[in-house]
Amino acid sequence: MTPSVGLSSGGLPVFVTVDQDINNLVGEDSVISCVFTAAKRKNQRNPATTLSDVVTLTVDGLMVDATTVVCMSPQWEGGNSVVDLSISTDMGLTAGKDSSFYYTEPVELEFLTPSSGAVSGGTLLRVNGKYFSLMFQYQCYFGATIVPATFVSSHELTCVSPVVSFTGSVDVGVMLGSASENLQSISTALSYSYYSVPHMTAVSPSMGGLSNNAAVDVAVRADMASGAAWCMFGNKIVVGKYSSTTSVVSCTPPPSQVAVSVGVKVSFNGVDFSSGDGSSVFTYVSDPHVTAMYPRHGSGDGGTVVDVSGIVFEDRVDYLCLFTPVYTTEEVGTAVQVVATRISSTLLKCTVPRRVDQTTASVAFSLSYGAAKTIVPTPLTFQYDYPVTVTSVSPDHISSSIAAPSVNGGVVGTSVNK
């Protein structure tokens, strides 16, 4: 029998093959009928309605050849059902009693996940909807291309997008039957978008700390509109954003427990990730740790070179010393960045900037490193010395055997008498 499954709305031509010559079952003016017999099942769309009585529906048949009869499937009200289909004549002769025909109701599609994919195909789609049944075989169509579908549950099928030679949207829907049968569309269509395969060209910055990194820009050749994108660092996925103006996907690297280099991939549907030419790598470096700074005070005119001691100062990493003004009012100003000179894995040198104004009592010290400028806070401060102004010396001359003279003067904001 072909096809062996049809919609409950009926109207499907069904070709039934029997194992004997139909001419032996009919007379010259005999009428051939197709008899559909089954117990009705509970209707999925109206579970409160129970239809359990045996129903027999008879429709006219037409002999195609000596062993084949074609008839139109009648409308069925019993929901998803298996019915016996036999050939009957007005002479009371029957054939094909063991043939089974499957009735199903139209399915309702709700959404596709993902709703887009590359023209190279191979995207695994989740087709979400209602009234799918394990009893039947389904196919997905992408425009004019048909691919097999896999039953997951009464609410989900999966299918794999085919390769296409164009970008843009196509209709995706579900068809009933196997590849060898006359397929029937049993759903409305949803839209699926094809885009060119994205190609990554650069990752910047390509190095950062184990945590608290700034966004990384991944340059991509793609024909996508601006919108959501995804990045994969190793096996960790983060949500980012794509700008068609700059052709850049921006993503913040997830934290790492260890210093390691990981591959970077991008996706425009959250499922398929492209790695470009394989050179796209992001390197996690161990976070530096600052233990001391010397000296801790100096001239307000700046220029004091301080030694910053610590551990894990990498030779591949750029470091910045950040000096944030702390005013006498205890307000905090904007940090001044100074390029640090790496001496060794435990020592950096930085030049303290000049005091912003006379109300700047000190500067708080922190360290920034890597192209992502990851900040390592510290409790260290650098105290600005106030300039000393000498106003008098008394006496103005003394004997070497006499005690030291008194020097009177002042500094900005205070006074001295030494």
Explain what you see:
- The protein is rod-shaped and about 155 Å long.
- The strands form 6 sheets. Strands 8, 9, 10, 11, 12, 13, 14, 15 and 16 form a 9-stranded mixed sheet that branches.
- By secondary structure, it is an all-beta fold.
- Residues 412-418 have low confidence and may be disordered.
- It has no helices and 36 strands.
- The chain starts with a strand and ends with a strand.
What fraction of residues sit in β-strands?
Answer: over 45%
Query: What's the tally of helices?
Result: 0
Q: Uncertain segments of ≥5 residues (pLDDT<50)?
A: 412-418
Radius of gyration: 41 Å
Q: Which shape, going by the Cα principal axes?
A: rod-shaped
- Which class best fits the helix and strand makeup? mainly beta
Rounded average pLDDT: 83
Share in helix: under 10%
How many distinct beta strands?
A: 36
Biggest sheet record: 9 strands, mixed
Task: Describe the secondary structure blueprint for this structure.
Elements: E1 5-7, E2 13-17, E3 32-39, E4 54-65, E5 68-72, E6 81-89, E7 94-104, E8 108-113, E9 116-118, E10 124-130, E11 138-142, E12 145-153, E13 156-160, E14 168-176, E15 184-185, E16 190-195, E17 199-204, E18 207-208, E19 216-221, E20 227-233, E21 236-243, E22 248-251, E23 261-267, E24 281-284, E25 289-294, E26 297-299, E27 305-311, E28 319-327, E29 336-339, E30 341-344, E31 347-351, E32 360-369, E33 374-385, E34 388-394, E35 406-411, E36 414-417
Parallel strand pairs: 1-7, 9-16, 18-24, 26-33
Antiparallel strand pairs: 2-5, 3-4, 3-6, 4-5, 6-7, 8-10, 10-13, 11-12, 11-14, 12-13, 14-15, 14-16, 17-19, 19-22, 20-21, 20-23, 21-22, 23-24, 25-27, 27-31, 28-29, 28-32, 30-31, 32-33, 34-35, 35-36
